[in-house]
Amino acid sequence: MASMRENTAIIKHLQVILGNDVSNDIVRYICSIEHAEDYDEFMENIVDKNNSGHVRAYETIKYLLFGRTSESITQPTKPEKPGGSKQSSYGSSSTNKKGKTRYTDIHKYQEKKKKLGRTICDCLGQEHDFMNNCLQCGRIHCMEEGPGPCLFCGNMVC
């Protein structure tokens, strides 16, 4: 069971998550939880994982109740890409240092792509340069997929 000082700290941090509507029953229940996994399960639907204030309050309460715990699973970490983000050499448009947009010639692109063939890519224009959306089904095409019939519905995408 948590001490009075810990209860006040828990209430303070719960107010970050729940607002001023923190009942003593909730505090008592949280203090009665014996395992960190049970705490994680209970708080999963309460904490907004995209709100850094909620996540910090959640972690602090967990620390107050269980001390140092293993790695938290509440906020997914973004994997670091080694060497920064790579852009395709086929880019439909790119910006130079002055901010001007430079467009590539589709005919040159098609000559390069003939050798490789068209491949389906699900990056939605985030890994490779964005090319265009299909006007019929709305599918996002990147330069890796290239111009031609939509790989989903067959409508022409340029």
Structure commentary:
- The protein has 158 residues and is of the alpha+beta class.
- The protein has 2 domains: 63 residues, no CATH class; 54 residues, no CATH class.
- Helices cover 37% and strands 11% of the residues.
- The strands form 3 sheets. A two-stranded antiparallel sheet has the order 1-2. A two-stranded antiparallel sheet has the order 3-4.
- Helix 1 runs antiparallel to helix 4.
- The radius of gyration is 26 Å and the shape is rod-shaped.
- The chain starts with a helix and ends with a strand.
- The relative contact order is 0.10.
In which order are the strands of the major sheet placed? 1-2
What is the string of SSEs from the N terminus onward? Answer: HHHHEEHEEEE
Strand percent estimate? 5-15%
**Helical residue percent band:** 25-40%
Question: Please, what is the oligomeric state?
Answer: single chain
Low-confidence stretches: 70-80, 83-92
Total helix count? 5
Largest sheet: 2 strands, antiparallel
Query: What would you call the shape?
Result: rod-shaped
Number of strands: 6
Q: Give me the secondary-structure category.
A: alpha+beta
Radius of gyration, in angstroms, nearest whole number: 26 Å
Mean pLDDT: 76
Distance between the termini: 66 Å
Our count of domains comes out at 2
